[in-house]
Fold:
Amino acid sequence: MTENLEELKVLCEGCQKCRLGATRTNLVFGVGVENAEVMFIGEGPGENEDLQGEPFVGRGGKLLDKMLNAIELDRHKNIYIANMVKCRPPQNRDPLPDEQEQCIMWLRNQFKIIRPKIIVCLGRVAASKIIKKDIKITKEHGIFTEKNGVLMMATLHPAALLRNPNNKPGAFEDFQKLREKIKEVCTHTYTE
Ligand code: URA
Structure:
C-alpha cells in the first residue's frame, strides 16, 4: 500500500469504512518508531486517546509506560504501539467484529512496514484476533508462541490491571520475560 507510516497514516485519516469513523474526534493511528523490533497491540482508543490522537494516554497508559520503562522500553524511542481499531468505540464498548474486520488492514499494513520480531497483545480483544481465537489471558499470558517467524505473547490489559491490582505482579513478570526475549532475538532495541 505504502512504504512508510506517515503516508499510511494520511490514508488512514480518510477512512470511513465503518461506523466508528463518523463519531471519532481524532484518529488514533499509533505511536513509536518505524524500525521497532517490538510492537504492542491494544484494543481501541478510549476517551483520552480519542481527544489526543495517541494510544494509551489515560490512566492505563500511564501504567503501561511505567511497565515499559521498567524494562527500558519507551514509546518514543524503541517500540511501536497500535490498536486493533483506530477510532473510539462509543461508550468504550468492545469493537464489534465487523469494525475489527474493516480496520485490520491498517494494522496489517503497519506490521508490513515495521516488521517487528515480537508482538505483544494487550488484553483479550487483540490476543484472540492475533494469537488464538479462544485464548484465556488469565492462564496463557506471558507465553511466547511463534507464528510466521514472529514471536507473539499476550499480557493483561493495563485497564484490567487498574481494576484488579492483584494481577500486577503477574503482568510485571510477563514484562521481565519480554526483556529476556528481546535480549535473545532483537538486535537494536536495547542499543539505540
Ligand atoms: N485501551 C486500549 O486498548 N487502547 C488504547 O489506546 C487506550 C486504552
Notes: The mean pLDDT is 97. Residues 28, 42-46, 49, 55-56, 60, 83, 159 surround uracil (CB under 6 Å). DSSP finds nine helices and six strands in the chain. The two ends are 29 Å apart (CA to CA).
